[in-house]
Amino acid sequence: MKTDRIEKLGDYLPFSYGKSLLKSKRITTGTFPVYGSNGVIGFHNTYLTDNFTIIIGRKGTVGSVQFSKTPCWPIDTTFFISISDLYLARFAFYSIKSLGLEKMNSDSAVPGLNRDAAHARLIRIPPLPEQRAIARILGSLDDKIELNRRQNVTLEALARAVFKSWFVDFDPVRAKAAGRAPDAMDAATARLFPDGFEVVDGREVPRGWGLARLDRITENPRRSFHPSDVDPKTPYIGLEHMPRKCVALDDWGSTDTIESNKFGFDRGEILFGKLRPYFHKVGVAAISGVCSTDILVLRPTELNWFGFVLAHVSSDEFVQHTDQSSHGTKMPRTSWKDMARYQVVLPPELVASRYNDFAFPLIQSIVTNVHQSRTLAALRDALLPKLLSGELRVREAEQVVEEVL
């Protein structure tokens, strides 16, 4: 019967050096992801490795561990390991994640991971069937997390597409003006739209609609808290927790790590990163908590306007407005004053409410997926060391995972 063995990481899974790739060659329309030490940083039309790949941060975000199922290009701030078998690659990925390589910074000036030092770390290697089983168990959790992420992208895109059709392109109005019924719309909703346009302050808008500043339907509640005023376990969101161009806020810390005053926010309110607004960090809070003062808290004046407000403040056009009106050269910031004067084409509240009936459930589904993914990630992280050490048997872990998937 085959038993576990202990080997040096470098003898079992030696690191290869990533290869440099000019920024000008990292394109958004490329086929293959380009990995830096902090994850995907662009795309390219060719790849460096075509197997399943583990990417390890060498410079910058030291010791970070990423996994790519697709051919990719790890750049020279990374190490990588390429393995042709999915389950063995995943087992290697989880083994390396458990080593705490992020604590092995060897250069105080420019963070760096020494390959020889990493190679000297010892890892437990169980028999191949157990490796595959461990990878399958933990991988099933990661697959569900990734599925939730993709679902959230689709849900957000769907809400945005309908918003653009109704309130930017005015498709229902144009259809009725041409004597046609609006596409994919029930008769009751179609009756809410006019059949023509008029000019308001030099701008063509649907007949009966108007122009208004954003603060007509949006407010900026300012609730300031000192760390001593809140429980240390209170969720905390900083700019570092907010993804770019994604309203699903699925990452947060806790207030036991902060020292200065912060703003409070409630679940369902909108958070907008005001520092360097061109980073496009806008999302819906999945929890109540406190946030950095470099984040503005927004909410609609009435719930009926929620979907309309969210779609506007997370749009490319609005972010461009905040960027152009921001103050400061090296660290530009926008403000609520700048945001409040943004002009919107304002429909009757009944039309906004009908859109909210469509969009709000989609956003709620996004928030539900966020919470489920965090629960699954916590379970994965709890099972990982126990499975790799042999403390927990594979069958026991399978039963736990079957209960949540």
List descriptors.
22 strands, Adenine-n6-DNA-methyltransferase TaqI, Chain A, domain 2, 4-stranded antiparallel sheet, alpha+beta, 405 residues, single chain, 11 helices, 5-stranded mixed sheet
Give the helix/strand layout:
Blueprint lengths: L4 E4 H4 L3 E2 L14 E5 L2 E6 L7 E6 L7 E4 L4 E2 L3 E6 L2 H12 L17 H5 L2 E4 L2 H40 L3 H7 L9 H4 L6 E4 L2 E4 L3 E4 L4 E2 L4 E2 L9 E3 L15 E2 L7 E4 L4 E4 L8 E3 L4 E3 L3 E6 L5 H8 L2 H9 L11 H5 L2 E4 L2 H41 L4 H11 L1
Parallel strand pairs: 3-7, 15-20
Antiparallel strand pairs: 1-9, 2-8, 3-4, 5-6, 5-8, 10-11, 12-22, 13-21, 14-17, 15-16, 17-20, 18-19, 18-21
Helix pairs in contact: 2-4, 4-10, 4-11, 10-11
Provide an overview of this structure.
There is one protein chain. By secondary structure, this protein is of the alpha+beta class. Among the domains are: 1-125, Alpha-Beta Complex (Adenine-n6-DNA-methyltransferase TaqI, Chain A, domain 2); 215-346, Alpha-Beta Complex (Adenine-n6-DNA-methyltransferase TaqI, Chain A, domain 2), CATH 3.90.220. The chain has eleven helices and 22 strands. A five-stranded mixed sheet has the order 14-17-20-15-16, with no helix packed on it. The longest helix is centred in the last third of the chain and has 41 residues, at 349-389. The two termini are 32 Å apart.
Characterize this entry briefly.
With 405 residues, the protein is of the alpha+beta class. Helix content is 36%, strand content 21%.
User: Tell me, what is the CATH class of the domain at 215-346?
Assistant: Alpha Beta
Beta content comes to: 15-25%
* Main sheet strand line-up: 14-17-20-15-16
Distance between the termini: 32 Å
CATH architecture call of the domain at 215-346: Alpha-Beta Complex
Return residue spans where pLDDT drops below 50 for at least 5 consecutive residues.
none
Query: Could you give me the name of the CATH homologous superfamily of the domain at 215-346?
Result: DNA methylase specificity domains
- Give the number of DSSP strands: 22
**Overall helicity:** 25-40%
What is the CATH topology of the domain at 215-346? Adenine-n6-DNA-methyltransferase TaqI, Chain A, domain 2
- The shape is elongated
Average pLDDT confidence is 95
